[in-house]
Amino acid sequence: MMIIAASTAAKAQSLEYRLSANIPFDFSVAGKKLPAGKYWINRAQQGNGDMVVQISSTDGHSNITRLTIPVVARNAMSKGSLVFHRYGDEYFLSEIWPAGGLTGRELRKTRAERELERKAQDNDIVGMKASEERTVTIRASNLP
Q1: What is the domain range of residue 6?
Q2: CA 90 – CA 105 distance, rounded (Å)
Q3: Number of domains in the chain
Q4: 49-69, pLDDT tens digit by residue?
Q5: How many CA atoms lie within 13 A of 118 on its CB side?
Q6: What SS3 state is found at 67?
Q7: Number of C-beta neighbours around residue 71 at 10 A
Q8: Which of 37, 96, 111, 116 has the fewest beta carbons closer than 10 A?
Q9: Confidence check: pLDDT of 27 > 50
């Protein structure tokens, strides 16, 4: 019984179990703009670990697969979450964190995001203050 419980807990700390999130704004992943809505995030191939993730709208209209790199937290995330970088009214998916995990997945910045980041640092984005928060976190639920 303990082995089964430990196995289930370990799976919840990875993307073996799909995450579900309602994202209230349009956002970009790998240069592709995705509309606001409900999304599933999980491993692209179940047997190959969390390196390649799949982001799919629940209505089936949007689907993207993306290579990620591991990122480690000091404390385990109590809830799954998606972290976005925001520049003006542009949002970019940056990190994916499963519930209970110390290891999340980070998506590399695209050229477009790096350019907006540079402009924001130079204070070139209209209405964007240099001190304004640029990170948005959306809670995600683990689904077995």
Answers
A1: 2-143
A2: 21
A3: 1
A4: 889 999 999 999 999 999 999
A5: 7
A6: strand
A7: 16
A8: 111
A9: yes
